[in-house]
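re the bet — no i am not wrong, look at it urself. input seq straight from the record:
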Amino acid sequence: MKKILINNNPWQTRIAITKDEALQNIYFSAHATENLERIFFKGIITKVLPGIQTAFVEIGQDRAGFLHISEIDRELAIEKISKHIQMDDGERVERPSSRQPLDISKILREGDPILVQVSKEPVYEKGAKLTTCFTLPGRFAVLMPNIPRIGVSKKIEDREERNRLKDIVKNHLPDTMGAIIRTTSENRNATEIGKDLDFLIQTWNDIQKKFETAEPKEKLHEDLDLTLQVVRDNLDDDVEFVIADTKLDQNAIYKFVKNIAPEYSHKVKIYDGAMPLFEHFNIEKQIEAVLNKKVELKSGGSLIIESTEAMTVVDVNTGKFVGKSNMEETIFKTNLEAAEEVVRQLRLRNIGGLIVIDFIDMAISGNRQKLFKFFEKNLKEQDKFQSVVLKVSEFGLVQMTRKRSGKTLVQELTHDCPTCKGSGFIKSLQTECYWILRKVKEFLQAQKPQEITLTVNSDMFTYISNTEYNAILYLEKNFTCKIAIQDDKKLALSQYKIEKK
């Protein structure tokens, strides 16, 4: 059974989802920081770059958002082209055909207002990713107000149920709108789904009205706060309870659930234990574990997970697991366990983009096929984000992409080390020592002093005194200079001071 745990402090809200006591998802919301994802803005186009088919749009944030041609709804693009100024020969721009490639410079003009929605939070030095392919999430469906297409959750497998749900949604939507039918809609009646869709349509109409009168860069609409979003998106029959550690949160969640899913309102509880909520359910230790590169598997094997800005690599190792019969069986079982854990880790760490998984090489092609199907099945059943997976190669590699959404857990909870600058390693004591000795030599060559004092880190002082003192004697002899060495605990390993007497 799943549990939804809400820990609220004046500075931050944290929401954890567990399954069989294992952490499955963790969400953070700092009260001093605004989450931009899914927010609608009245943006102003500041720059159009035809070379990369991208426009930059001011939305009142530190960095302008970027809107790529692929994120512009085609009907909107054609409408804007049709309305634009006449061409040089005085004739109005022709309406493009449905298959004709679009050029962003003919769609958008600098200074024009545009309705945009944030699809991805700013990452690294990039601004927010914007879209005009809008989505409005509800309990049973995600409304796509300008994309007339109906999709059904992959987790709803019964064909008759899928067709029933499609018919219900079609009957409640205008021809110009579409929707993605969520898993929670399974076996729901037409009245419940219709009520949800009516609310979303009304929300969309309100956004359009606000756009007409809003100031440039004004926020027009944002989703529910994070706590209610998580409850809305995850509360189902599999949830044992939703528990909050403040009465205020419990009351707000109870009222929300009573309104959207009254059959689950009894599951909303208050935590009043002496131990902090996250410690009681062993969440704090699990969060710390997720920050480690190494993930231990129950069998004794392990995963090594390393991410860069470009991609994430997962390496699978057998470790202590030796199996009971032969090597191929050992490898196959380790790979299956690893595949299941990789899905959990991708979801938990919120890793997106290009991902390469280096499974242990298997000699039997049938085992590679079984592994691929098992991995794909787990992604489909356990992960709500869209992913594309290529089959296992002869070298045991699986290449996949997973939709990005906001910051990764590492980005959320850490920053680059000030010593290694994010490289993941620092220079050795020996390397730093040689660098300092070179700087001393350069100083002696330039200044020609008779006596100096060299101040270094305590560890560096010990290393020079015990290992490289002959180098100091060499410098003294060749530059006719007396060198005194002293230590300073406040200095970093790479820092030094040279004082001339």
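see?? The mean pLDDT is 88. told u. also The longest helix spans residues 190-213. so pay up
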